[in-house]
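Q: What residues go here?
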């Protein structure tokens, strides 16, 4: 904020706030980061809201409005070009690094296979089918994590890679009362129910010590971690 990059737009309708959008203005480019709408916001107002944000960014000197990562349908209404994203990961030539990279690769391939299979089972995808697919993905992930935990694979990987002594930062995007209702207007994979959130905190509290992000930063700069630590955060 001190650099003046942050931009926040708020849409009011009938005296109440129904939408908000924020991003960053850096140089001649506006980076759209996140937006949210009230459930009662008409669809036509949502489209108009993006147009107003783009107009405001141009008025602020922007020559490009970057919608960033994601292939959501509404972005195709405004964008005329797409850019490929490339991930580069550098690891030392050690056995621990090899084990880590293989584990991450297998995990990504497994998730991709599951997403592809479940999507094919529900084509074309309705809103109800999307919720069902989301539940099936969550069930598969839960079953896989339980299997990894019970077989001790997580402890083996942690011992080989040294990751068991690295603090865990767990981020939550949005905590809601009703997953099914909220999924109709939000990305379901970014939601967690209050009941499940409480269960998460209970389990984390039994296996980790809660510390703040500031504590993690200070310890990474100086002291080492000898116990398991966790720091939940919210976006």
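A:
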């Amino acid at each position: 904020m001190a650099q003046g990059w942050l931009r926040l737009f708020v849409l009011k309708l009938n005296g109440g706030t129904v939408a908000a959008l924020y991003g960053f203005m850096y140089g001649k480019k506006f980076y759209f980061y996140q937006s949210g709408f009230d459930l009662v916001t008409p669809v036509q107002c949502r489209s108009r809201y993006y147009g107003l944000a783009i107009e405001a960014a141009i008025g602020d000197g922007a020559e490009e409005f970057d919608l960033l990562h994601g292939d959501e349908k509404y972005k195709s209404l405004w964008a005329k070009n797409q850019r490929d994203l490339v991930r580069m990961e550098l690891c030392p030539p050690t056995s621990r690094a090899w084990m880590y990279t293989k584990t991450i690769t297998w995990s990504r391939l497994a998730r991709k296979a599951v997403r592809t299979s479940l999507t094919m089972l529900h084509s074309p995808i309705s809103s109800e089918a999307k919720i069902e697919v989301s539940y099936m993905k969550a069930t598969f992930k839960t079953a896989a994590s339980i299997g990894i935990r019970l077989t001790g694979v997580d402890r083996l990987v942690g011992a080989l890679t040294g990751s068991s002594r690295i603090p865990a930062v767990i981020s939550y995007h949005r905590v809601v009362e009703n997953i099914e209702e909220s999924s109709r207007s939000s990305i379901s994979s970014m939601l967690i129910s209050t009941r499940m959130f409480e269960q998460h905190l209970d389990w984390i509290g039994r296996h980790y010590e809660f510390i703040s992000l500031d504590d993690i930063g200070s310890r990474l700069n100086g002291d080492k971690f000898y116990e398991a630590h966790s720091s939940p955060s919210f976006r």
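A: Context that may help when evaluating the design: Residues 166-235 form one domain. The mean pLDDT is 76.
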